[in-house]
Amino acid sequence: MIKWLAAVLGYMYFRFPGAILGFIIGSLLDNYIRSSGGIFNSMAGGKKQSVSPGDFELNLLSLSSIVIKADGQVSQQELDYVRSYFIQAYGKERANATFRTFNEVVKNRQVSAANVARYLAARTKYPTRLQIIHFLFGIAQADGRVSEAEGNIIKDIAGYLQIGSRDFESIKAMFFKSTDSAYTILEIEKSATDAEVKKAYRKMAKKYHPDKLGHMDEAYRKGAQEKFTKVQEAYEQIQKERGI
């Protein structure tokens, strides 16, 4: 559209030569806007830029490598967790090919959590980013516990992914059992009324419903189901404690 507008403006001021020059300049602008991911759309609150499946996989693996190396050692249990997850999502052949790249990243390269997460934040929907955080906590817990260093780096990644603090604490509580974890999962205080508990459960069940990731592969939908189940379990625990 810009090339035609530029052609008309060029004709108004410089007649036919101006129309040609305007068309050329407008075409260049059109190409630049498309290649830069739609900057005008972004400024106007348009659709997010998309990310190809291959780019998504490699960036997710990059975040995985950051979490695995966070405590200064590479755990075989954590590597196996990632491999199993990707085989379930993409099949053995494709997962193994991707995992060869992943091994190189884990062993030989320093990856910027900020750059990777911000790239994904600009190109993925919020429910997908929530699942990324759930996946990263799953990796950290694969060796039996989430270390302080792993928890801290996942919190940083959540910030770069533009995850709300209450949503982050909700997912974190699914991996850390405490007397208040059921309330944290539902994003409410322990002093909440029964009515507020029920309202919170409906809200969280809707937020974490597996249908939110219907566009993703099976492994990601399974992760969404796990979050959804944790919300149900938290609500049932509070119901039992309160007799409601």
UniProtKB/TrEMBL annotation:
J domain span: 181-243
UniProt xrefs under CDD domains: DnaJ, terB_like_DjlA
One Pfam family per UniProt: TerB
Keyword match Membrane: yes
Membrane-crossing residue ranges in chain numbering: 12-33
Keywords assigned by UniProt, alphabetized: Membrane, Transmembrane, Transmembrane helix
Zinc-finger in keyword set: no
SUPFAM superfamilies: Chaperone J-domain (SSF46565), TerB-like (SSF158682)
PROSITE patterns for this protein: DNAJ_2 (PS50076)
InterPro entries: DjlA_DnaK_co-chaperone, DjlA_N, DnaJ_domain, J_dom_sf, TerB-like
PANTHER family: CO-CHAPERONE PROTEIN DJLA (PTHR24074)
UniProt-recorded name of the protein: Co-chaperone protein DjlA
